[in-house]
Amino acid sequence: MGRKLDLSSLTEEEAEHVLQVVQRDRQLRKSEEDRLRQLKQELEEEKTRCALLSRQPGFNERCCMLCCSPFSFLLASRQACHGCGYNVCRHCRRYTRDMPAAPSPRLRGRGARCP
């Protein structure tokens, strides 16, 4: 980042063009950093919201523990994660073939897991 370029061999027009490219790169990097900062903040807010909601009695019976979306019979059915035991929706769960560390023998084999 801190390298210096020798622009003495360039014409005035070429040097101006290089300067414009560098300035545009700086603007793009700043806008990307701002976008990432905003996404991180939104993610933290979502985690906080889910953490607060999960403390309500029976929350996990009605809503996914990961995304907080409500369960429905067909569209967002629930299934218990074999790792933590919480209910997760079909959008949040991942399937594994082998679960040797399952907490009970009936949970061994193919099953849903939190990502």
UniProtKB/TrEMBL annotation:
Residue runs in coiled coils: 22-56
Pfam families: FYVE_2
A molecular-function term among this protein's GO annotations: myosin binding
SUPFAM superfamilies for this protein: FYVE/PHD zinc finger
GO BP term, pick one: intracellular protein transport
Localization per record: Cytoplasm, Perinuclear region
Ranges where the RabBD domain occurs: 4-62
Keywords carried by this UniProt record: Coiled coil, Cytoplasm
Keyword Lipoprotein attached: no
Cited InterPro entries: FYVE_2, Intracell_Transport_Effector, Rab_BD, Znf_FYVE_PHD, Znf_RING/FYVE/PHD
One GO CC term on file: cortical actin cytoskeleton
Domain of life: Eukaryota
Protein name (database record): RabBD domain-containing protein
Organism encoding this protein: Electrophorus electricus (Electric eel)
